[in-house]
Amino acid sequence: METRFDLMNNEIGARFGKRFANLGQVMERSSLPKPTQELVSLRASQINGCGWCIDMHTKEAAAAGETAVRLNLVAAWRESTVFTEAERAALALAEEGTRLADAHDGVSDETWARVREHYDDDQVAALVALVALINAANRLAVIVHQKGGSYQPGMFTAFAERG
């Protein structure tokens, strides 16, 4: 399966991509812990089958010091002992917010209550926005068959900061 279209080599796609990357900077600069951001992005990307985003968030997490054990267990976080209760709440939100079509109520009240136990208002705003943004990113990359494997840590941030 070849990449269908290179959004970054198209004027409209590149302008959109720059603004999209800048949105990611909002979450990155928030008080939501960086490990949580990467775990949430990785889990949503796994669910959506986005090789590019799995590649990106695995490498960004590793570059930030995340362990291989935790990265390898994200897909089975419920059956793992390596995640905090706060991370587990965020991962549950990521899954339920990603699988909206699978549950008519969307994010459950139980999951929402667990998120509110562990995160303040700014972190909740960042978490909700992150789940929405990573799902949009997954869809962009999957639609054009953007492949994983070539991402280097910091590429996305460098793209966002380009003038």
TrEMBL record:
The lineage of its organism: Bacteria, Bacillati, Actinomycetota, Actinomycetes, Pseudonocardiales. This is Carboxymuconolactone decarboxylase family protein. Gene3D superfamilies: AhpD-like (1.20.1290.10). GO terms for molecular function: peroxiredoxin activity. Pfam families: CMD. InterPro entries: AhpD-like, AhpD_core, CMD-like. SUPFAM superfamilies: AhpD-like (SSF69118). Residues 18-96 form the Carboxymuconolactone decarboxylase-like domain.
